[in-house]
Amino acid sequence: MGLVLISGALVLSLAACGGGGGKGADAKGKETSTQQGKQQSTAAVTISPKSGATGVDTSGALKVGVAKGKLSEVTVKDAKGATVAGTITGGGASWTPSTHLAASTKYTVHAVAKDSEGREAAEDSTFTTLTPKNTFLGYFTPEDGSTVGVGMPFSVNFTRGITNPQAVEKAVRIRTEPAVDVEGHWFGNDRLDFRPEKYWKEGTKVTVDLNLDGVEGRDGVYGKQHKTIKFTIGRNQVSVVDAKKHTMKVTQDGKVIKTIPVTTGKPGYDTWNGQMVISEKLTVTRMNGETVGYGGEYDIKDVPHAMRLTTSGTFLHGNYWGGGAFGNYNASHGCVGLRDVRGGYDSSTPAAWMFNHSIIGDVVIVKNSHDRTVDPANGFNGWNMSWAEWTK
Question: What is the pTM of this model?
């Protein structure tokens, strides 16, 4: 019985210690804040858009701010847990994302701020971005996992004309090992190429983050793809065609490994001068003068060992009909011809050797022709622009 009375007294004593609500009195009878009151922060965090919002724009809509405090942490994640990069600016007054948001995606925001006394306040929000009615894609080259020559740019062709090029270019991030400055250049409003100042260094590993998802490329038209592309730069092969001497010197790492007799464009059909990049390899193809504005002057259905140098139709290719032209005179309609056999079955011919020793992205330079320098937009031939022009 005595134990029960003692326990009851203890309960009464503990209950008496908890009174007074949110305020208490000190020894002099003055009211003081409780410990709970002292911990409440005066910082007020604001998140835009409001929690639960839908149809949110992918750029410019997400902002985090604070009054009477400084932001110490802002975390934005999509439904898969991927974090959106951003920066706290204004001495802790605000946070904005470093990139655009993806379309049709739900995001969560967690923001923490501290007031002048170090007390923390937090705010959370969720919202969903818009689902675009009109979209665009980027068709890119080279392919993921490929090995290419030292002249190969990373090139993207867009399915819609771009009127917001800065936003689109910012969405293409390129990293290289070893590190080198890589810059973009627009050809018209639907093609964007990236390259370094000089040819790539052999062995360079290139990683491209093509993050077009949610980018507003033109009013009301948004990108809808996000891909990572990796490619490697192979050995350094540059071939120099001398249209006057009718020769081509093939170099690797600056050393001549083979000199091949060639024929280039005859008078009135001269080959372009300048630096050109192999963009396509075809074991056999048809060449028809109708397709390049030469009427019915020729139609050869089985041109062997053809490698494209320009979009307009300049090729480095095998030639089985040239007779004694190779190394002696120019007889083509603008292409660079190498001796070959019909059907291309003989691997010992100069054309077959060249085809087998070349990869997409190798450079072919033509000099001493009577025509002008090739247009940089005609194929992957931006190397004919100075670095100042390229980055302007």
Answer: 0.85
